[in-house]
Write a structure and sequence with these properties.
The complex is a heterodimer of chains A (about 350) and B (about 160).
Chain A (H helix, E strand, L loop, with lengths): L9 H5 L5 H13 L1 H19 L7 H14 L6 H26 L6 E7 L3 E2 L2 E2 L3 E4 L4 E3 L5 E6 L3 E5 L4 E8 L2 E15 L6 E5 L2 E14 L5 E14 L2 E6 L2 E6 L3 E2 L3 E2 L4 H12 L3 H11 L5 H8 L7 H11 L8 H5 L3 H11 L4
Parallel strand pairs in A: 9-10
Antiparallel strand pairs in A: 1-4, 1-6, 2-3, 2-5, 5-8, 6-7, 7-9, 8-9, 9-11, 10-11, 11-12, 12-13, 12-14, 14-15, 14-16
Helix pairs in contact in A: 2-3, 6-7, 8-9
Chain B lengths: L1 H19 L3 E5 L14 E6 L8 E10 L2 E7 L1 E3 L5 E4 L8 E10 L2 E10 L2 E2 L5 E3 L5 H16 L5
Antiparallel strand pairs in B: 1-2, 2-6, 3-4, 3-7, 5-6, 7-8, 8-9, 8-10
Chain lengths: ~350, ~160
């Protein structure tokens, strides 16, 4: 029977490399020794973790350092077998350390491919020639004559227009997020809603399955123009839902403006600008209501929750005059801004947009 | 006299109910489907007045006139996440004039629609709706009207 602890034999024992008599003795000792049982469990867990580690190509520098270390030890020829075992262990340890270091040094998630379209776009301050890659935390920048396309994981692509500065914030499969500091991007996304986000100084554009162009300056003044699907632009609880064919201005400390269809009358757009960002008030609201067509219920629906409570009735009545109020939508609930009522109404109105 | 009034009221009530239950189509732009898969659809449509939309039978064909030759393309309509809502994707050629003929059944009820397609997409204002499948004559008439309006440049 073992009278001493069997720490040194545990790895061989768990690997089944001990001769049968010694293995049997080890088993007996483990039954009686809590300390060795605990160590055995730790070793077993460690081996399981190692089995599940991904195979990673070690950096070239590691091989050079191993070769250098072996070279330095070459004159000493005593006990070659033991030395080779140590070398193998050292190699494995170095490879694992290198892999771990390499892994930690990389940004989390897979990097996205960047393709140069014109000029000299740069990623992390380095000009890219044909193609490059961009990871979380890195900036892509284009000058007045440069353009590039970023492939957004598996869900789409973003074209970076000239004079644009964009940072990749997150590149996880569940969240693809960019930060647009200035300039313009054109996003084409084919994915379920809420997987792609673009932050600006005036708020965040949330993809609901769409194609759109978003421009912004450093202060947050910008424009969102949707060509397919829907985009939600959000800022501190204020949300504008912008469908294909519509646009929405953005402004710092005000977030998204009220969306309007691009083919809306110019007089309506001007009144909207005045109402939304210039405190045009009662007169601007009157102009919006009188200029609205059936399709402009998109604008009126958003207005309902942004006008003074005393003006909601005017907005509701104009909407009701333009298109029948659907079943399940009451004036009372709409004026209270009941979320279920407003959603039901918007979904019905969308059939006219 | 009282019986006559009751009979008239009953007839009116039945007519109103029948109207309310009428099986019809509504068309809309892809955003109306509230489904990201509709993003690239030519247009979407929904059935109304069918108690169980899942049991309705829906079909569509694209009817076209390409360089004076009549063409017909069977279409696959894709059901969206909301019951009774479908998307029509453009699988017909880009050249020529085209209308999409929709037809559906819900039990004993029938519905049909002709949706003209212009250079900028479907033309809502010119769409026609029927309580039955559109006839060949109606399809030809819609194609002719579309062709004439495009020649006048009305849909550009």
């Amino acid at each position: 029977m073992f009278t001493r602890h069997i720490s040194r034999q545990l790895a061989a024992h768990l690997d089944g490399e001990l001769a049968p008599p010694k293995a049997q003795q080890a088993e007996i000792h483990l039954r009686q020794c809590a300390r060795c049982r605990a160590e055995s469990e730790q070793v077993r867990q460690g081996m399981q973790i190692v089995e599940h580690l991904p195979l990673v190509e070690p950096p070239e520098a590691i091989w050079r350092s191993i070769e250098a270390a072996l070279e330095a030890r070459r004159p000493r020829q005593a006990q070659p077998f033991i030395r080779w075992r140590w070398a193998a262990v050292a190699t494995a340890m170095l490879a694992l350390s290198g892999a771990a270091y390499w892994r930690l040094a990389q940004p989390p998630g897979a990097q996205w491919e960047v393709l140069r379209l014109a000029g000299s776009p740069s990623v992390a301050g380095k000009a890219i020639r044909g193609a490059g890659r961009i990871g979380a935390g890195e900036w892509i920048e284009t000058d007045a004559r440069s353009r590039a396309t970023v492939k957004v994981g598996e869900i789409g692509s973003v074209e970076i227009a000239p004079g644009t500065r964009v940072r990749v914030v997150t590149e996880r499969p569940s969240e693809h997020r960019l930060a647009l500091a200035r300039g313009e991007i054109r996003a084409t996304i084919s994915a379920p809603p809420k997987l792609f986000f673009v932050d600006t100084a005036a708020g965040t554009a949330v993809d609901l399955g769409c194609e759109y162009a978003l421009s912004a300056d450093e202060r947050g003044f910008g424009l969102l123009r949707v060509t397919k699907g829907w985009v939600s632009f959000q800022w501190k609880g204020v949300e504008s839902l912008v469908p294909a064919g519509a646009s929405c201005r953005t402004q710092p400390q005000a977030g998204p403006g009220i969306p309007y269809f691009d083919d809306a009358p110019e007089s309506l757009k001007q009144a909207l600008e005045s109402f939304g960002f210039e405190k045009g008030g009662y007169d601007a609201l009157g102009a919006i209501l009188s200029e609205s067509r059936v399709r402009d219920t998109l604008t009126l629906w958003h207005l309902l929750s942004r006008v003074e409570p005393s003006d909601r009735g005017r907005v509701f009545d104009r909407m009701a005059a333009l298109t029948p109020v659907p079943a399940g939508v009451s004036r009372e609930q709409a004026l209270k801004l009941d979320s279920g009522t407003l959603q039901r109404w918007r979904e019905e109105l969308a059939w006219t947009w | 006299m009282l019986r006559l009034v009751i009979a008239v009221c009953a007839a009116c009530a039945i007519a109103v109910l029948a109207r309310a239950e009428e099986f019809t189509f509504t068309i809309g732009s892809p955003v109306a489907a509230q489904d990201f898969r509709a993003k690239v659809a030519a247009f979407v449509f929904r059935t109304q007045g069918c108690p169980d939309p899942a049991k309705s039978q829906i079909g569509a064909t694209a009817e076209g006139l390409v360089k004076g030759v009549r063409r017909s393309v069977a279409l696959n309509v894709q059901a969206m996440s909301k019951p009774g809502v479908y998307a029509v994707y453009q699988t017909w050629p880009a050249e020529g004039q085209w209308v999409v003929s929709l037809k559906g059944t819900c039990g004993e009820a029938n519905a049909g629609a002709i949706v003209p397609i212009g250079p900028k997409g479907f033309i809502r204002e010119s769409a026609k709706f029927f309580p039955r499948a559109a006839t060949q004559v109606e399809i030809e008439a819609s194609l002719k009207a579309l062709s004439q309006s495009e020649n006048k440049g009305e849909n550009k």
